[in-house]
Amino acid sequence: MIGIFDSGVGGMTVARKIEQVCPQFPLLYFGDVAHTPYGSKSSDTIIGYSRRNTDFLLNQGAQVIVVACNSAAATSVDVLRAEYSVPIIDVITATSSKAAAGTLNGRIGIIGTRATIQSGIYEKQIKRVTPDYRIYGQACPLLVPLIEEGWLNKRETKMILRRYLHPLRQHQIDTLILGCTHYPLLTHLIQKKIGKKVQLIDSSIETAQHLKSFLDNSPEITSNIKEKFNGYQPHCLENNRFFVSDSTPPLQKLADGIFGRKINLIKTNA
Ligand code: DGL
């Protein structure tokens, strides 16, 4: 099974894309809603949560782990790769490559949580390949709580977004990385506020494509996934299970909205 984790519902944008791009594989999702947001916590705390989430997914039968959270990927992915033998896919690698390949003027903006922006990870990855590009990061710590609350179209959300995006507009970026898996839920507002000429790079789409090409090139892993899943039926959405460490009505509504169907959120104390 493909195990996916995030601090909350954000990673569901990644899980949904994975369902669409790799429909033949069963998914296991864990949203650590009880501890969201990760992006405002220390690296040590996020690493601790990431280890625990990985253990939970492996115990449930995951054979590949997707860290569907930029904050967790920015702080913990090297630790997880050193400590676990399963393949670990992160949301940052494919997203930075796509942005670097897509910009025409070499000016790229990144919005994300404080943990992601302070880590400088996108900048490092992009500059490794194209050192002369100008990268502008903007931490947007208020967006995750607003999204988790379901405030996707509220006036307050628009005002805060305008304020966060203003400096990036001044830097005349032509490409903007949505460096938090929650942000695709605000794409409509972000595109409007940053301007329609700016290309948005959505880490959920890039990560799903990255996972697909990884699986396409790993026949041993894919046959293992099919063999070990009891009652495996390809293309069956019923195979997919969604665990959360806490559940609230706004969260359920967001989950149903992201997948376009009723999602059974299973509460666990993992
Ligand atoms: N969705 C997450 C990310 O991609 C985390 C948000 C948070 O918990 O701060 O960074």
Automatic annotation (TrEMBL):
The active site is at 69 (proton donor/acceptor), 180 (proton donor/acceptor). GO terms for molecular function: glutamate racemase activity. It catalyses: L-glutamate = D-glutamate. This is Glutamate racemase. It is an enzyme of class 5 (isomerase). It holds the Pfam family Asp_Glu_race. GO terms for biological process: cell wall organization; peptidoglycan biosynthetic process; regulation of cell shape. It comes from the Bacteria. Substrate binds at residues 6-7, 38-39, 70-71, 181-182. Belongs to the aspartate/glutamate racemases family. Keywords: Cell shape, Cell wall biogenesis/degradation, Isomerase, Peptidoglycan synthesis. Provides the (R)-glutamate required for cell wall biosynthesis.
